[in-house]
Amino acid sequence: MAVVSWPEGLSDQTPLPYGVWKIMTHVNGERDSAQVARMAAVSDADVLTAVQQSQQWVERATAQQRPVSAALEAELTKILVSVVGPMATLMMDDAMEDLGETATLSALLSTLASELDASQMDAFVRQVRARGFL
Q: Residue 30 gets which letter from DSSP?
C-alpha cells in the first residue's frame, strides 16, 4: 500500500464535502491507504477516491481565485449575454468597475449573483462550468 498525502494546495480552509473531510482528516503523509481506511471506517478504494476528490476541489478553489483577464471577461460576457440579453455588457462593465484591477472569478460571480435571479444565475454558472472556467 502506498502512503497517501494531502494534495498540494489543500488546507484546512478548503471547502470539501463532509464525506471527503471525514477521510482526509486521517491522511497525514505517513499512513498508507489501508491504515487511513481502518481509521475512517471506509474501504481502501474510498480513501483513494477521497484523495482524488480533494484534488479536484483544490483545483476548483484555485480556479475561482484566479484574476479575471480581458479574455476571460470577454468569454463571461458572451455567456451572460446568452442568459440576460444585451444588458449583460453593462452588467459586466459595472461589476468589473466595482471590483477594480484585482477582480477574481469568485468575486465577479458574487457581484453578478446579486443582479441575477436564481434561474439566471443557475443558467450562467452551468454555462461557465461547461466551458471549463469553474
A: S
Average pLDDT over residues 84-105: 91
Q: d(Cα 81, Cα 76) in Å, to the nearest integer? A: 9
Rg of the chain (C-alpha set): 19
Running DSSP on this structure, what letter comes out for residue 41? T
Can you give the length of the chain in residues?
A: 134
CA dihedral sign of residues 24, 30, 32, 35: negative
Q: Measuring CA to CA, which residue among 30, 120, 32, 52 is closest to residue 84?
A: 120
Rounded distance between C-alpha atoms, residue 105 and residue 109, angstroms: 6
The pair phi, psi for residue 25, each rounded to 5°, is: -65, -20
Name the CA dihedral angle for 9, 14, 17, 23, rounded to a multiple of 10 degrees. 60
CA distance 134 to 130: 8
Q: State how far the alpha carbon of 128 is from the alpha carbons of 47, 106, 121, 124, in Å.
A: 30, 12, 10, 6
**Which pTM value belongs to this model?**
0.60
Contacts of 113 (CB under 8 A, 6+ apart): 121
Mean pLDDT score, 30-47: 94
